[in-house]
Write a structure and sequence with these properties.
By secondary structure, this protein is of the alpha/beta class. The protein has helices spanning 3-15, 20-27, 47-68, 91-94, 134-145, 164-178, 190-202, 206-214, 231-246, 267-274, 286-299, 306-315, 320-337, 343-354, 363-374, 378-382, 388-403, 409-415, 421-437, 439-454; strands at residues 31-36, 39-44, 74-79, 154-158, 185-189, 218-222, 250-255, 277-281. It has 20 helices and eight strands. Bound molecules: adenosine-5'-diphosphate and magnesium ion.
Length: 455
């Protein structure tokens, strides 16, 4: 098998593992250029792709390559020789490339249980209950006292950073403790489930895998919206689900949207999700946000004024992870300055997280952020080319100008090299539609927004 065939076969494998958009973005222009000892050398068409393949897809690529050629042990990534050398990406933007999978298991002294995948950091004792999450919390608590009998399955959904993962771990941890480790529990993200399944199909160990899942007492699957990527996975999940359900074993799902909004999910699976209890988590009110901050301050032995807490909570409204980030910023400030910041100072400190829309931004800044992110030149973005690598960033730029800067369609067209306003409308609509399903795209756009507002 030559390099080209080897790569093609790996690509076939990779393609079924990730969304079409991600595949097109990251793999279309890549190739396998060399094999040296146990090292495969993959060429990428720009720096950004290289980073992304290294950080996010290395494991997947390695697995795919090894399934055809077991000699391969590692992969090195290089940038295509004919692409002029580019300076390495600036450090501030690096962090946006780090996927959650690459965050070490041990965080802040908490060790994730290898068997159950549960993180002891997340418990009911440090979950603050408010109107936004009380139903999800109550159902979770009830389940953890008597798994398999009450709400089965439990389906929790809500936006990013609102505590879904926290609740899933809390359920698992509570059951583990209450039943003296006698219950078999597993927490897994849907993405990991998908990968495990595909590996087991390839290595012909699918029966073992099925057996492992079917013997569980409690199965917690996080971010189930990713399941829609593969029919085969849905099929297997359906069988595992039925087998557990019939034996009164507890199943809990989380998702960023309700079952009916998960695209291309099989009807029978959807109706299973809907057959149990569905609880949503909405945005926390001011009181809950303040309670979360107070609890955090107490845990970390930080003394903060009521006023400071309120100012932070007023400024960060949509995401509890961001609220925690804001807290860390303010406490870092206090450590350095030795005093609590005034209201105005807190607002300045948090301005990029909190109310980015108030910052005065120009189309130039948006264009710059987009070309930096996709590693393009401004000239190529504005050029009249229909090549896919350019069309997508251009559409993203149009979308951001509309969404963030509220510019008129003709005005956007003009700023992007004289495009017709109907082209702009089409682009904005297209991106908006894709955003609903394509989490990769939404991550990209969030990263770009973050860059626009921070820099
Ligand atoms: P999601 O899975 O919904 O994206 P996470 O469960 O990862 O969100 O929550 C993000 C962060 O916010 C975590 O550090 C979590 O501990 C914290 N958090 C979320 N909700 C609460 C809550 N009600 N009380 C305390 N901390 C919370
Ligand atoms: Mg989560």
């Amino acid at each position: 098998m030559d390099l080209k065939e080897l790569w093609q076969s790996a690509l076939n494998d990779i393609e079924i593992n990730i969304s079409r958009a991600s595949f097109m973005t990251w793999f279309k222009n890549s190739s396998l250029i060399k094999k040296e000892g146990g090292t495969a050398i993959v060429s990428c068409h720009n720096n950004f792709t290289k980073e992304w393949l290294e950080n996010k897809y290395n494991k997947l690529i390695l697995k795919a390559l090894r399934s055809v050629d077991t000699e391969i042990k590692t992969i090195e990534y290089t940038i295509k020789a004919d692409n002029a050398p580019k300076p390495p990406p600036k450090t501030p933007s690096n962090r946006v490339y780090i996927s959650s999978e690459s965050i070490p298991l041990e965080l802040g002294g908490y060790v994730v249980d290898k068997d159950t995948n549960l993180n002891p950091r997340y418990g009911f004792e440090n979950f603050i209950v408010g109107a936004s999450n009380e139903v999800a919390h109550a159902a979770s608590l009830a389940i953890s006292q008597d798994p398999g009998t009450k709400y089965n399955p439990l389906f929790i959904y809500g936006g990013v950073g609102l505590g879904k993962t926290h609740l899933l771990h809390a359920i698992g941890n509570a059951i583990k403790e209450r039943f003296n480790q006698k219950k078999k529990i597993k927490y897994i993200t849907a993405e990991k489930f998908l990968n495990d399944l595909i590996t087991s199909i390839r290595t012909k160990t699918i029966d073992e895998l099925k057996h492992k899942f079917r013997s569980l007492d409690v199965l917690l699957i996080d971010d189930i919206q990713f399941i829609s990527k593969s029919e085969k996975t849905q099929e297997e999940l359906f069988h595992i689900f039925n087998s557990l359900y019939e034996k009164n074993r507890q199943i809990i799902f989380s998702s960023d949207r309700p079952p009916k909004a998960i695209a291309s999910i099989e009807e029978r699976l959807r109706s299973r999700f809907e057959g149990g209890m569905i609880a949503d988590i909405t945005l926390p009110d001011l009181e809950t946000r303040m309670a979360i901050l107070k609890a955090k301050a107490q845990r970390e032995n930080v003394v903060l004024n009521e006023k400071t807490i309120e100012t932070i909570a007023r400024n960060i409204q949509k995401n509890i992870r961001e609220l925690e980030g804001a807290f860390n910023r303010v406490t870092a400030y206090i450590k350095v300055k030795g005093k609590e910041p005034l209201e105005k100072e807190i607002e300045a400190l948090l301005s990029d997280i909190s109310r980015p829309n108030n910052k005065i931004l120009t189309p130039k800044q948006v264009i710059k952020a987009v070309i930096d992110f996709y590693d393009l030149t401004e000239e190529s973005l504005l050029r009249k080319s229909r090549s896919q690598e350019l069309v997508k960033p251009r559409q993203v730029a149009m979308y951001l100008m509309r969404e963030v800067l509220k510019m008129s369609y003709p005005n956007i067209g003009e700023k992007l090299g004289g495009k017709d306003h109907t082209t702009v409308i089409h682009a904005c609509e297209k991106i908006e539609k894709e955003l609903v399903f394509d989490t990769q795209l939404s991550q990209e756009i969030n990263s770009i927004k973050e860059k626009v507002f921070v820099e």
